[in-house]
Write a structure and sequence with these properties.
8 strands, 17% strand, binds NADP nicotinamide-adenine-dinucleotide phosphate, single chain
Length: 225
């Protein structure tokens, strides 16, 4: 089972790639440029030399083709162009989308989201992948790259996920729960991604206000396992 991170060269994607690789998964880091992916993967293997990891670098198209589970970590402006390049390779795979529609996409504040016609970025991904059979799951929106890259520390956070396909959510939860400290919570159908994505600018605002990089989310009183 291979996990491909599309746009995996940025902090969010690389943080997820590192955590999943350390957890024992075979991970592919995707980029628009194969050379960039290879360079970052080589640096990462060197950085994580104390761990026995399986990490490869590829162009996004090859990463989409070779991955069994796809995770997309690109900014909102790159969402549609990226999906266009990989759409033919997505098929009916589980497609985890971490996109948050921050207002920064139009030069605005990271403390606000912009409105998306489809309802949320994840619903837009599902719409843009129409005809492929892709099973989109919204996840990782509320876990910051600072936490993901803070290796080897555990991540003291819940990961709210949403999606319309229970099998895809079950596979995603099993995968994400391998990251030490993270507890996945199934928030329901994909339309709940509207609320999940909106939590991110709140967390960013709280991190700025309280001068932290590690603010995250825990839901209490629920046994989701
Ligand atoms: N950063 C966080 O803490 C965090 C937390 C929760 C959710 N998220 C979400 O995760 C996603 C990725 O976040 P990030 O901070 O890692 O983003 P980023 O660094 O801005 O971008 C990630 C990767 O996307 C590709 N990319 C950037 N601009 C592009 C463009 N115009 N067209 C095509 N590809 C482009 C680049 O890869 P190549 O140049 O290699 O192709 C880049 O390394 C975003 O949607 C963000 O809202 C981030």
């Amino acid at each position: 089972m291979k996990i491909s991170v599309i746009g995996g060269t940025g902090p969010q994607g690389l943080g997820i790639a590192k955590r999943l690789a350390i957890a024992g998964e075979d991970v592919i880091v995707g980029s628009r440029k194969e050379e960039k992916a290879l360079k970052i993967v080589n640096e990462t293997i060197d950085e994580l030399k104390d761990y026995d990891i399986s990490l490869e670098g590829m162009a996004n198209e090859d990463a989409a083709k070779n991955g069994d589970i796809l995770i997309m970590t690109v900014p909102l402006v790159a969402q549609a162009p990226t999906l266009k390049t990989i759409k033919e390779f997505v098929g009916d795979k589980v497609f985890i989308d971490a996109t948050v529609p921050l207002e920064t996409a139009i030069g605005g504040s990271p403390k606000r989201c912009i409105g998306i016609c489809e309802g949320s970025a994840a619903e837009r991904t599902q719409a843009l992948l129409k005809g492929t059979g892709a099973k989109v799951v919204c996840a990782f929106c509320n876990i910051s790259n600072s936490l993901l890259l803070n290796i080897p520390n555990d991540i003291d956070c819940d990961c709210l996920i949403a999606g319309d396909y229970q099998d895809a959510k079950d596979i995603s939860m099993e995968l994400i729960n391998k990251i030490p400290g993270v507890k996945c919570i199934d928030a329901g159908p994909l339309e709940r991604s509207r609320m999940i994505e909106q939590i991110t600018p709140l967390l960013i605002a709280l991190n700025i206000k309280y001068k932290s990089q590690f603010g995250g989310l825990r839901i209490t009183g629920i046994d989701s396992k």
